[in-house]
């Protein structure tokens, strides 16, 4: 009886400990892992990447990667915490030059309730040519007007912090626009807070438009609430605060359909993801905004769009992919079917370095099932294992409503993954004009298809990386760059502050010019 009671008590303790660890209650951020444990994790990481990453030697040679691996191994001579070990591995992961390959903290760390939260700088940042400027100012120093350059964060030159951050953010090949986007979005501030002790109050060195430098110590300005709120008149030096996208979309729906109504939030989100607009009254030009290839009922949406364009006699179509981080490439393939007359390819091939890419003990089981459900093995070619899917290889165009007018594609550093595949393959198979910045995803292709998660056995750090190399239809040599714009658009700092949309301005002007040239012919 005592033995039975002891066993029950032991089981309860184990269950409680497991639950506590899963919820983050049992996580110890200061736990030190032995040199042996760290080296074991490192050995698993190295073998997995060397054997299974589809492009580990595509943009960094085997000799270079061996040097990076060996350099990290030599530093594993003392116990480390999970965080310290992760900080050591991150630059190594970046050297693979794959935007889909990233290092993430353990699930226990993610669930840890008391984990420190970054302190964000009290102003919006604008990055331009590795220089930092102030956008909207929320600090206690009201003299920091938009457009003021920040030359030092604390005692550190901005260039030092930017370089440090870029060495820790992955991108496809030698691309920089993808890094710039995420550094500006949040990562530069996170790196400054985590690695340079960037906490409030912040001391910054700034340079005004006359070239004068000064040092100021700032904090975040307290929020004004209740009766203290007053309307702020528009000032050319201070951008007006815009409502968020969801609010603007709801207002638009209310304007179209007046009166009391219960808004479908899912429909609002779908409209934010994709929409068709006619900027001119004559409907000769349309703008198709695709903010991600992850919307529902895409086949009916695409059919409705191109039927509308045909009925409206639209002659020029602007496809805006600037906020499109990718998603389901099959949605992009269906969209492409309305833009090309004959058989076409969106994805030329999906290739893997091993026959059974998910056969590895440290991989996530759920993601293993996704591979079996979505891809089928085709055979071996050129030393690689080829897999098939509905959007791989030759595809048929749409039966009706194909668009034969002028097409302009707007791109940015955020145009990534399935969106850059779409832009690259479309440009390779029909006349289009790409306007904007180099895409964040590669023109020749990217690593993708299924993203697998490798969990290291001791620290439980996770490395997410793709299984396949996804080749586009582009015939250009792989130079490790994104889709380059035919018409590059560069923003001055004041263009950003005034929230100008230079790509749309340029595209509309080109559309009018091209239509005029067609009429004159």
Automatic annotation (TrEMBL):
Residues 243-490 form the Tail specific protease domain. Residues 1-20 form the signal peptide. Keywords: Signal. InterPro entries: ClpP/crotonase-like_dom_sf, Tail-specific_protease. Gene3D superfamilies: 2-enoyl-CoA Hydratase, Chain A, domain 1 (3.90.226.10). This is S41 family peptidase. It comes from Nibrella viscosa.
């Amino acid at each position: 009886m005592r033995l039975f009671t002891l066993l029950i008590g032991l089981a309860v303790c184990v269950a409680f400990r497991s639950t506590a660890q899963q919820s983050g209650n049992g996580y110890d951020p200061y736990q030190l892992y032995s040199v042996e444990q760290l080296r074991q994790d490192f050995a698993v990481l190295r073998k997995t990447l060397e054997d299974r990453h589809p492009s580990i030697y595509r943009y960094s040679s085997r000799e270079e990667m061996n040097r990076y691996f060996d350099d990290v191994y030599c530093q594993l001579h003392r116990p480390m915490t999970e965080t310290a070990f992760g900080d050591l591995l991150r630059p190594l992961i970046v050297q693979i030059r794959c935007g889909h390959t990233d290092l993430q903290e353990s699930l226990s760390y993610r669930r840890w309730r008391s984990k420190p939260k970054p302190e964000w700088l009290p102003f919006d940042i604008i990055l331009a040519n590795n220089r930092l400027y102030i956008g909207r100012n929320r600090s206690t120093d009201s003299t920091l007007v938009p457009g003021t350059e920040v030359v030092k964060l604390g005692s550190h030159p901005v260039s030092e912090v930017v370089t440090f951050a870029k060495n820790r953010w992955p991108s496809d090949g030698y691309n920089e626009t993808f890094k710039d986007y995420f550094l500006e979005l949040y990562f530069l501030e996170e790196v400054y807070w985590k690695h340079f002790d960037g906490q409030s109050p912040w001391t910054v060195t700034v340079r005004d438009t006359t070239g004068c430098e000064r040092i100021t110590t700032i904090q975040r300005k307290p929020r004004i609430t209740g009766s203290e709120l007053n309307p702020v008149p528009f000032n050319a030096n201070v951008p007006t605060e815009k409502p968020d996208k969801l609010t603007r979309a709801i207002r638009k729906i209310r304007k179209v359909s007046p009166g009391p109504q219960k808004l479908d939030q899912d429909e609002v989100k779908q409209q934010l993801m994709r929409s068709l607009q006619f900027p001119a009254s004559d409907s000769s030009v349309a703008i198709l905004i695709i903010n991600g290839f992850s919307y529902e009922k895409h086949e009916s949406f695409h059919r409705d769009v191109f039927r509308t364009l045909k009925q409206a006699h639209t002659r020029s179509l602007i496809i805006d992919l600037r906020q499109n981080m990718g998603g389901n490439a099959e949605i992009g393939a269906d969209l492409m079917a309305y833009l090309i007359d004959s058989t076409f390819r969106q994805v030329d091939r999906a290739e893997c370095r091993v026959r059974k890419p998910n056969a590895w003990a440290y991989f996530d089981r759920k993601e293993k099932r996704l591979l079996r459900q979505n891809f089928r093995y085709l055979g071996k070619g050129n030393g690689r294992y080829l897999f098939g899917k509905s959007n791989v290889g030759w595809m048929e165009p749409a039966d009706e409503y194909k668009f034969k007018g002028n097409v302009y594609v707007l791109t940015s550093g955020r145009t990534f993954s399935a969106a850059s595949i779409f832009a690259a393959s479309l440009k390779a198979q029909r006349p289009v004009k790409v306007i904007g910045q180099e895409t964040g995803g590669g023109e020749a292709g990217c690593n993708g298809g299924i993203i697998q998660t490798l969990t290291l056995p001791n620290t439980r750090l996770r490395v997410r990386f793709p299984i396949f190399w996804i080749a586009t239809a582009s015939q250009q040599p792989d130079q490790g760059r994104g889709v380059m714009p035919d018409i590059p658009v560069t923003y001055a700092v004041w263009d950003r502050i005034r929230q100008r949309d230079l790509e749309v301005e340029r595209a509309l002007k080109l559309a009018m010019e091209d239509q005029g040239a067609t009429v004159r012919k």
